[in-house]
Write a structure and sequence with these properties.
Layout (H helix, E strand, L loop, with lengths): L3 H6 L9 E9 L6 H15 L3 E10 L10 H13 L4 E4 L5 H11 L2 E4 H12 L3 H15 L31 H31 L3 E7 L5 H9 L16 E6 L5 E6 L9 H6 L1 H9 L2 E7 L5 H15 L6 E6 L6 H10 L4 E2 L8 H13 L5 E5 L4 H10 L1 E8 L2 E7 L5 H4 L7
Parallel strand pairs: 1-2, 1-3, 3-4, 5-7, 5-8, 8-9, 9-10
Antiparallel strand pairs: 6-7, 11-13, 12-13
Length: 430
């Protein structure tokens, strides 16, 4: 019986799979070397599940097979190799249909999973808040529903978390009606979360503060950047999806404006669509933010593809047109060649180090420009008995000059368009 400690920490039971045989796919339509890159990423994901990788092999695929994705001869060869390696599970770096998964398990006698299920398991392993657990549970149930006929109860473990209960609750119930009922229940709970977020957002808007969302590929340094900007102490680890739960902290910009900054879940190539859907309750913070801070790891050789992946997910979320600052992080570890390549990729990007805070002055100034609209200063005359307006200008705008006169305080300032109704009565008419 699994102990309470193993449940709470996600330790794999002894009866679970321990050794994984990985198969990468290089299709004709993929760029040269892309299959190797994705396979290396899959290897890291699998190792994050505390599985030992016995072998990672790349297969060139001319055309997909409806039965096994790969040709039957190649599939049989790989299955035999996995058995010879003593593997417990075969992991394909591709999306397998339920039928293809069953066919692979029949010819190999082993558990067979695909990239999507690996990502779902990593997310399940990292979910800490009740909201994240609900979102992951929904994605896993929707993934499992057409696969309930599979006989093997691999990797699924709820670890006693969330509303679904204990071991195996998200997989392998043979009653499809029960699973659909659970999916409906989770959607209701997530809808309640969305309503709660709306209430919280309306409360924030009563005292409006500009908001920014940090987005980017997983492990680009988003949490490190939030920590450095705001003095927060978020978990920072050098691994994919170190944290899934969004965190919002307040910071002060030049000119004393306040800014709320939210760290969001990292993106990844071939992010399962179900996870994008399930995480919309969290990722709506991206859509609602006044602007985005798109963080890229300048030292990563795949940085251009990581940028394209993030932009693709943002488009799927309906946030493609959000104002954004592109920030190349980790310049303390970058070579001059990497810096040059990044400047060529995004000419107006900023270059920073969350570790040393290099480049932060430019980043803070760019944030200030977006918060204030970077407009020409507007002249206001604020009566002496309305220092609440001056305090609000300090908090929500940028005061450039301030002169005390007999009839009030003459101020040159910029402020967001959203605050125009508050400050316009004090604008000096030309």
């Amino acid at each position: 019986m699994e102990t309470e400690k193993s449940k709470s920490e996600g330790v794999k039971p002894e009866s679970g799979p321990q050794r994984a045989f990985l198969i990468g796919v290089q299709a004709l339509e993929m760029a040269e070397g892309e299959g190797d890159e994705l396979l290396a990423e899959l290897t890291e994901l699998v190792e994050n599940l505390r599985l030992t990788v016995t072998r990672a092999t790349l297969v060139k695929m001319r055309r997909p097979s409806s039965r096994l994705l790969l040709g039957s001869g190649k599939a049989a060869e790989l299955a035999a190799l996995a058995k010879a390696d003593g593997a417990d599970v075969i992991v394909l770096d591709a999306a397998l249909s339920p039928a293809q998964q069953r066919n692979w398990e029949e010819i190999s006698g082993l558990a067979v999973i695909d990239r999507e299920e690996v990502i779902l398991e990593v997310f399940a392993d990292r979910a800490n808040t009740s909201e994240a657990r609900l979102q992951v549970a929904l994605a896993r149930l929707e993934y499992s529903l057409p696969r309930l006929t599979r006989a093997w109860s691999h990797l699924s473990r709820q670890r006693g978390k969330g509303s679904l209960g204990g071991e195996g609750e998200t997989q392998l119930e043979q009653d499809r009606r029960l699973v659909r009922a659970r999916i409906a229940h989770l959607k209701e709970e997530l809808a309640a979360v969305v309503r709660q977020r709306d209430v919280q957002r309306r409360r924030r808007l009563r005292v409006p503060v500009a908001t920014a969302a940090i987005v980017g590929y997983t492990n680009a340094g988003k949490s490190s950047l939030l920590n450095a900007l705001t003095g927060a102490h978020l978990l920072v680890e050098d691994k994919l999806f170190a944290t899934l739960d969004p965190t919002t902290r307040q910071m002060t910009l030049p000119g004393n404006q306040k800014l709320l900054v939210t760290d969001t879940v990292g993106f990844i190539r071939r992010l399962p669509h179900g996870l994008v859907e399930a995480f919309k309750a969290t990722l709506e913070e991206v859509v609602m933010a006044d602007f985005l801070i798109h963080v890229l790891d300048v030292t990563n050789p795949d940085v251009e593809k990581h940028r394209a992946t993030t932009l693709g997910v943002l488009a799927e979320l309906g946030a493609a047109d959000q104002p954004a600052i592109t920030v190349f992080n980790k310049i303390d570890a970058a070579t001059p060649g990497q810096i040059r390549a990044a400047r060529h990729l995004v000419p107006d990007a900023l270059f920073v180090s969350a570790l040393t805070r290099a480049g932060f002055d430019s980043l803070l100034e760019r944030c200030r420009e977006l918060v204030t609209g970077d407009r020409n200063a507007i002249e206001l005359l604020v009566p002496h008995d309305r220092y609440d307006i001056i305090a609000r200008l300090h908090a929500q705008g940028h005061i450039r000059t301030q002169e005390h006169r007999d009839d009030g305080v003459l101020i040159q300032a910029t402020f967001p368009e959203s605050q125009a109704s508050i400050f316009s009565p004090f604008v000096v008419k030309v």
